[in-house]
Amino acid sequence: MSWILHIDTALETACVSIAFDGKLIAEKFNISQKDHASFLQPSIAELLAIATISIKQLDAVAVVDGPGSYTGLRVGMASAKGLCYALNKPLITIGSLQIMAATAIEQLHKNEDSVLYCPMIDARRMEVFTAVYDELLNVIATPCAIELSEDLFVNLMLKKKLYFFGNGALKWKMICCNENAHFSTVENNSMIVSTLAYQYLRKNEFANLAYSEPAYIKDFFSPLNR
């Protein structure tokens, strides 16, 4: 049995949640990106009160490590590492794009081996942070920052459908003409984060607490704080 605290300040909306054995117990959101730092600690205290546990009863802390807002990623990582150091608990890191893909797989219910999933996060101008996953969440194209062009992922779309989603997909939709490109709206879900974090915990797949850093992909750049 395990309690995991999740911290996500990577994008516009911040979320902290707490789960027991991978089942979401409670969550809190903040939609004002500039207030993510001040939002975290009071919200964590409220979640612990709702769960009726002390902070020492946490078994791990999970944090979304990017890509995303440079400032937001630093805030989340610093908070998660601080808690883990103080409590002597393991740190779990989960990628923004992985969470988006897992959510799409859950929400779209395609269950086809001929379908791939491509989350996109706006990275300013005609760039996006992106990656490609299959229906089992295996990485087909590793996370990167890439400039959008008409031939993007054309080889993958020769035989498979690609589902694009995320705020970066809006720019891609304007120039994409491939019949195997499909666009969907996918909303991140704290239940997905809970499930992924619990899987990491059960496999003892923990981040190195001393050396963990946000996955900025693009140094010193926040695509959402323009």
Polypeptide structure, described:
The protein has 5 helices and 10 strands; from the N terminus they run E-E-E-H-E-H-E-H-E-E-E-E-H-E-H. It is α/β, with parallel strands linked by helices and 226 residues long. It has 2 domains: 3-95 and 188-202, ATPase, nucleotide binding domain (Nucleotidyltransferase, domain 5), CATH 3.30.420.40; 96-183, Nucleotidyltransferase, domain 5, CATH 3.30.420. A 5-stranded mixed sheet has the order 3-2-1-4-5, with helices on both faces. The protein starts with a strand and ends in a 24-residue tail after the last helix.
Indicate the proportion of strand residues: 25-35%
Shape assignment: globular
When the domains are counted, the total is: 2
What is the fold-level CATH name, i.e. the topology of the largest domain? Answer: Nucleotidyltransferase, domain 5
The helix fraction, in percent, is 25-40%
**Helix/strand/pairing category:** alpha/beta
Number of helices: 5
Read across the widest sheet, the strand sequence of neighbours is 3-2-1-4-5
What composes the largest sheet? Answer: 5 strands, mixed
What is the average of the pLDDT values?
Answer: 93
